[in-house]
């Protein structure tokens, strides 16, 4: 819907008559009275756009947009999307002039300082920072699924070893129909028959992020709720007694809903995509080493609403919706090394794990927002997450097979995933010849937490002839502004 500030010719005449030719105040002068980093950044960017459009372009050329324009002239440089951008930033500038008591005010929205600050926040697009959350959480979910599979290979699909309370020697639980690879001819023959293994896992993650737009910290992000469903399937093959190679395919569907009750924002981000990972496991006695490398691709569909009022009867309120789509690609790799100690039915396993992610989100342009559309630059996210963990589990042997409840705790240290800046510029300016140098909205993200903790609890089931299942609840702790939880389950089998 195209906004019109003058519905009848008499109104346009009144506005034009009220316009002085020179502005002596602007949005930058209002900055000391603004409340948040987003408002300050938006004030600078909108004022820069207004100055660019109203400053003469060279000695022989006048301004791109005449400050006296009351309607789209339909020709020349200040028409179409350029005029729409000019008109909306002019309203903000004139509103600041009115509050400061200087400069032209005919196109003022008539808002008080707080409401003008809110309008400035609506013109920014800090919501885009949440795109990185969808990509990193999918990567993390796939790596968690891989970790669960590797644990199953060592403690399930390969067999369960316990210590005989009377003899003090290791014994394999033959009741499950699972026989260890190695340790005798019969074991080797059974192992050869069941070198192939497969699994299907599902995970539902959910959580929220708090609003940080009012904090004086580096970066400002809006409040949102999120959830995601991941489905993972894999196949692996055991070479000899110590080495396993496998492949994992994953699919995800994720949604971010911005919480307008906590932030000046409204909209959604929907993401779906696929992943492919190759992995390897080597184990010797109680020690193991594993590694993986993979790639994932996500499509992101974004809906961003821009809505703020006008108390000037000659100026229409704003209510527009920007639509856009883009893609992201991620390279990920991981390694782990650990050692387990067993006594009776108990197993204690300390381990060290590292995960690397390199994410690139393609630049894109919005549409449908009648001048409020932005064009965004590429985004890059690189991180290396190192974790020290401890897993404790106990084996029970009911008549139907094996039950293994477990607890897992990890301390994480994230290296390299720092605060980043998202570059955005009004699309109407970016498209106009000679105006690509317009001031960007430099939107800073939060500085991610360097250290956090993960706790998980669950159980595995192993039935006769190698069929397995598991269920797990996981929660992340000590993230300053994020609550993150996930429930995962799956089945595994040999053939």
Taken as a percent bin, the fraction of beta residues is: 35-45%
- Helix tally equals 8
Radius of gyration: 30 Å
Q: Pairing-aware structural class of the strands and helices? A: alpha+beta
Q: For the largest sheet, list the strands in their spatial order.
A: 3-4-5-6-7-8-10-13-14-17-18-19
Q: Give a short account of the largest sheet.
A: 12 strands, antiparallel, barrel
Count every beta strand, where a strand is a DSSP E run of 2 or more residues. Answer: 19
Helix-residue proportion: 10-25%
Mean pLDDT: 81
Distance between the termini: 60 Å
Shape: elongated
Q: Helix-strand pattern, N to C?
A: HHHHHHEEHEEEEEEEEEEEEEHEEEE
Q: Which stretches are poorly predicted, pLDDT < 50 over at least 5 residues?
A: 4-23, 156-193
Structure explained in plain terms:
There is one protein chain. By secondary structure, the protein is of the alpha+beta class. Helices cover 21% and strands 43% of the residues. It has 8 helices and 19 strands. The protein has helices at 9-18, 27-30, 37-54, 81-100, 113-123, 131-155, 185-193, 427-431; strands spanning 161-163, 170-172, 196-209, 224-239, 243-258, 267-284, 287-308, 318-339, 341-343, 346-361, 364-365, 374-376, 379-394, 401-415, 421-426, 441-444, 451-463, 468-477, 482-494. The strands form 3 sheets. A 12-stranded antiparallel beta barrel has the order 3-4-5-6-7-8-10-13-14-17-18-19. The model is unreliable at 4-23 and 156-193 (pLDDT under 50).
